[in-house]
Amino acid sequence: xxxxxxxxxxVKKFGNFVxxxxxxxKMEEGTITGLLGPNxxxxxxxxxxILDIISPTSGEIKIFGKPMHRHRDEILSKMNFSSPYxxxxxxxKVWENLYTFARLYGVKDIKGKIGELxxxxxxxxxxxxxxxxxxxxxxxxxxxxxAMLNEPKLLLLDEPTASLDPDIADRTRMIFKKLQxxxxxxxxxxxxxMEEVEEICDRVIFIQRGKVKDEGxxxxxxxxxxxxDLNDVFLTIAREKV
Length: 242
Prior knowledge:
Layout: E1 3-14, E2 17-28, E3 32-36, H1 43-50, E4 58-63, E5 66-67, H2 72-76, E6 79-82, H3 94-104, H4 110-120, H5 136-147, E7 154-158, H6 166-183, E8 186-190, H7 194-200, E9 203-208, E10 211-216, H8 218-225, H9 230-238
Parallel strand pairs: 3-8, 3-9, 6-7, 7-8
Antiparallel strand pairs: 1-2, 1-4, 4-5, 9-10
GO molecular function, one term: ATP hydrolysis activity
Organism: Candidatus Taylorbacteria bacterium RIFCSPHIGHO2_02_FULL_43_32b
Domain ABC transporter: 5-234
């Protein structure tokens, strides 16, 4: 399969602190790949570099086979990102937020696309509400709808179901799997819910102390570490001494 994302010897330093320490990995096109690790492992910094929010100290990122630093605009037009920790303008109504981002992304049929995504993410009754009135779970669904406006080929999801109740979280995972199967979308997925990761991820990459500690399919890693599930694998890696 073709690598949609390649990270080569990526390093990020903040002064004397090394947040990401020479990590390398590939993500195959059309897969859901989990980027896992304890808090402070370097996941967020890695995602921010992939999104070109911050620049690497050294190393290279290729997306769609092209270096990010040379083809930034082209690459970002085919990507998107969603996180319940990123806030949309509270002074806009839900539909106004979606409309504004749709214009920024150059969506042609804005009304049709908003209608489609509102139905998909159960936002239809929320469209006329002020964004400031939404619950954390509703905001998460709005963020995900926003991320799908430009029909991205690569979607980065940071704890996408963290604020959702079990029913909506399950429906959301079904949407991700449907997008992967029917649209061929590639998803880089961070989560601390290992049961969820086992369910939807084709492959996982464990980061610890800014380095890639291990990677493979969930089943491969569970077998390798001799555990019953991925949660125990996570605990083993997170608690490993330097």
